Amino acid sequence: MGSNGICDRVAIVGMGCTPFGEHWDKSVDDLLIDAANEAVASAGIAIGDIDAFWLGTMGSGVSGLTLSRPLKIDYKPVSRNENMCATGSESFRNACYAVASGAYDIAMAIGVEKLKDSGFSGLVSSAPPADGTAAAISAPASFSLLAPAYSEKYDVDMVTLKQVMTRIAWKNHKNGALNPRAQFKKEVPMETIANSPLIAGPLGIFDCSGVSDGSAAAIIVRAEDAYKYTDKPIFVKALSFVAGPSRGPLDPGYDYTTFDECVAVAKDAYQQCGITDPRNQLAMAEVHDCFTPTELVLMEDLGFSERGEGWKDVQAGTFDLQGQLPVNPDGGLKSFGHPIGASGLRMLYECWLQLRGEAGPRQITNGKKLAMTHNLGGSPGNCVSFVSIVGSEREV
Amino acid sequence: MKGIVAYGTYIPYYRLDRRAISEALGGAPGRGTRSVASYDEDTTSMGVEAARAALSAPTAPAPESIYFATAAPAYLDKTNATAIHAALGLDPSVFAVDMGGSVRSGAGVLQAAIDAGRPTLAIMSDIRVGLPGSGDETNGGDAAAAFLCAEGDEVIAEYLGGANMTAEFLDRWRTPGESASRVWEERFGEFVYVPLGAQAWKKALDSTDTTLEEIDHLIVTGVHPRAARAVVAGAGVRKEAIVDEMAATLGNTGTAQAGIMFADVLDRAKPDQVIAVLLLADGASVMLFRTTEAITRYQRRQTVAGQLAGGKAVGYNAYLTWRDILRREPPRRPDPDRPAAPPSFRSEPWKYGLAGSRCQNCGTRHLPPQRVCLKCQSVDKMSSERVAETEATIATFTIDRLAFSPSPPLVAAVVDFDGGGRFPCEMTDVDPDSVKIGQRVEMTFRRLYTAESVHNYFWKARPIRRDS
């Protein structure tokens, strides 16, 4: 495929991220203002210095006015993106391409979502008028389809699989406990996770990511300009995004133990920046742990584990904060929370902190220079997916 | 020779133990069970199931008309038979019409189908509801039956003739919008019905030159059980000819009851037997049939006895919830959207007929139908293919405790059809704990929910039901 990438052509020179959680006292405008101003402050610039903006939100506003109105942006381009749970990453991707093309010198990617105002449990989205035939199952239910399929394919009994799921949630809560911006800043005992009320299939409430409000933002410039703004820029090594043909719900050949779309973006991203052994080359990965079986399957799809072996690696602690490849060191969607449009940029924010050595008590010290963010939006066999690789050193 | 060429019945999966009613409300302990339509069924969806069973007979000709009778129509003003027509995947030239509103219309559609002069499917369906503690609630039942009437060698029960009596009097009634019927004093109805039944019975025997000794099966049912018993007692037939009303297991299924009893007799009748069907409802109707040699070759999907044997108990609280009598706290989730008319119109072959598309270039089957092939990307090389009668296997599944359902939890499965194609759908009539990968399922037409007075009809999967 003609995916050439823009390895080392743009850099992140400033970031901001609000705490995620139940912001009963903050509006969408407030969250955007907070994240945007933190980002420009960290880059040492002003909002007025930015040439173009990409705003990601799934349902907290339409059009660029959602950003330009609260920030009082003076007649600059503001695009509003939506790509389900990859929305924030999609804003980042487009902003990077705009700077790499030379069209703009400084761009901002910003994501926001305010989920708690709906008053409903879980994620709520409105669909266009339809014929009423689409299976109206909830998000946790659609991802819970992975569990019995994985159990069946790899002969992992459901009791063991539930322990694996529980350990993933336990790990992400443990990481989140070290993160002052996380929605759930506390460890949760495995017993509490395992015995939490069932939501869908074997998924209990603790197997689901946090429904929350939040915003995150990044300032992007050309790589050669990066050191004008900071001593420790983060260079964009790879960006990949795909939308699948929705094979899962149509094709009996799809077995609900993988995300074809995630396999595709990982392969593309690794090729763009020359990664051949992600488990050993990456310092850390922020992956889309919307539900615990998702993170398990992703370990295999992203090439961190062999097929059918991910559950063993989880049990062995490979992806713990002190493990061989720390996954979701900031707590992930599980513990940091999942305000849809902000999540992709929140993941980048953790890469930003970790690669700059600013992650405090959860600082990873394996000395590696590359980090990954990954999103997927949709449901198994029917999704969009995104991967970015960023690094602290520029090689070209 | 004209008469019945095919028939089918549908008895819903659930049974309400009458003791559950008396335990909740007091009173004398109830005995036996009644059939209960599930939360996702109505008279239209049950009519579809009965019609599918009838049309599954290999010898069934294509119907040219369908007549639908019910005393509990899902819609007023709008025809319900059109949804049945669509769910059966019939040609638009097939005439579909409701003849509804009263129990008597059940006899009406069968008579009209016999007289139609072209292959005609008569469908009778009912959901019997009464106020909590009422006789209608306790003694009612829910079911549907369908009879395909035509002329020719495939007739399994030849129509011999019959008689009708019509009378205007107030015994049982309900105005549109009311949930429960009212009845006059029982002895008054008996006073009027018994002579009407006797007169119709005599006229039918006389007009067909049939003697009492020739009657092998006498079916008497109607809206007045006490009068029905009296008519049976006075009919003069052999004791063993009297057909059980199935009150102990099924309950009185109103518009469908004569059809269910007739089908039950056809399930076990031998050739050259005379069957009399007598309905007491706003008069009296008698139809006489004689079975033919063809009945020995007739292939049924499931017998009435088999369907009755396979039921599962439903609690009284769930029953009251399903019938909208007990209003429960909804989940903290948005109400489902009402299906929009234009998208439903565009997808009618899929939504109602469960017809997907098969790529004529590479053979891949798509559910729902696609214009572009998933495998070879060919555009508009598709042919329509109905999978409603195709069995499938569960690939994976979930029990969704968060999603809206009129009766949580929602059970959903990804099912792979024999002959290709996959489709994620809801399951119904299933114990959530029994669902397994590899389990075999069949499709059933259901009313998923009703939003803003729009019934959302579509298909669900259920474990395969067969006579054991």
Shape of chain A: globular
Structural class of chain A: alpha/beta
Name the shape of chain B in a single word. globular
**Count of domains of chain A:** 2
Q: CATH homologous superfamily name of the largest domain in chain B?
A: Thiolase/Chalcone synthase
CATH architecture of the largest domain in chain A: 3-Layer(aba) Sandwich
Strand order of the biggest β-sheet of chain A: 3-2-4-7-1-8-11-10-9
Oligomeric form: heterodimer
Count the strands of chain B?
A: 22
CA-atom Rg of chain B in angstroms: 22 Å
Residue share in helix of chain B: 10-25%
What structural category characterises the helix and strand content of chain B? alpha+beta
Tell me, what is the CATH class of the largest domain in chain B? Alpha Beta
**Uncertain spans of chain B:** none
Strand order of the largest sheet of chain B: 5-4-6-7-1-8-13-12-11
| Average residue pLDDT of chain A | 96
Within CATH, the superfamily of the largest domain in chain A carries the name Thiolase/Chalcone synthase
First and last CA, distance of chain A: 23 Å
CATH fold name of the largest domain in chain B: Peroxisomal Thiolase, Chain A, domain 1
What would you note in describing this structure?
The complex is a heterodimer of chains A (396) and B (468). Chain A has two domains: 10-117 and 213-231, Thiolase/Chalcone synthase (Peroxisomal Thiolase, Chain A, domain 1), CATH 3.40.47.10; 139-208 and 235-391, Peroxisomal Thiolase, Chain A, domain 1, CATH 3.40.47. In chain A, the strands form two sheets. A nine-stranded mixed beta sheet of chain A has the order 3-2-4-7-1-8-11-10-9, with helices on both faces. Chain A has 13 helices and eleven strands. Helices cover 33% and strands 19% of the residues of chain A. With 396 residues, chain A is of the alpha/beta class. In chain A, helix 1 (28-43) packs across helix 2, helix 3 (87-100) crosses helix 13 and helix 6 (158-176) packs across helix 10 (292-301). The longest helix of chain A is centred in the middle third of the chain and has 19 residues, at 158-176. Chain A has helices at 28-43, 65-71, 87-100, 139-144, 146-154, 158-176, 190-194, 260-273, 278-281, 292-301, 310-316, 332-336, 340-355; strands spanning 10-17, 52-56, 78-81, 106-114, 198-200, 203-204, 213-222, 234-243, 282-286, 370-379, 382-391. With 468 residues, chain B is of the alpha+beta class. Chain B folds into two domains: 2-322, Peroxisomal Thiolase, Chain A, domain 1 (3-Layer(aba) Sandwich), CATH 3.40.47; 341-463, no CATH class. Chain B contains twelve helices and 22 strands. Chain B has helices spanning 18-25, 43-55, 81-87, 104-115, 135-139, 186-207, 225-235, 257-268, 304-309, 316-322, 341-346, 348-351; strands spanning 2-10, 14-17, 33-36, 65-70, 95-98, 120-127, 142-151, 157-166, 172-173, 182-183, 215-222, 274-280, 283-291, 312-313, 355-359, 365-366, 382-386, 392-400, 410-417, 422-426, 440-451, 454-463. In chain B, the strands form five sheets. In chain B, strands 5-4-6-7-1-8-13-12-11 form a nine-stranded mixed beta sheet, with helices on both faces. In chain B, helix 3 links the parallel strand 4 and strand 5 (95-98). The longest helix of chain B has 22 residues, at 186-207. In chain B, 53% of the residues are buried. Classes of the chains: A alpha/beta (396), B alpha+beta (468). The A-B interface holds A 119-122, 124, 127, 129-133, 135-138, 140-142, 144-146, 148-149, 152, 198-201, 245, 247-252, 254-256 and B 331-334, 336-340, 342-344, 346-347, 350-351, 366-368, 370, 374-375, 395-404, 410, 412, 414, 416, 420-426, 437, 448, 456, 458.
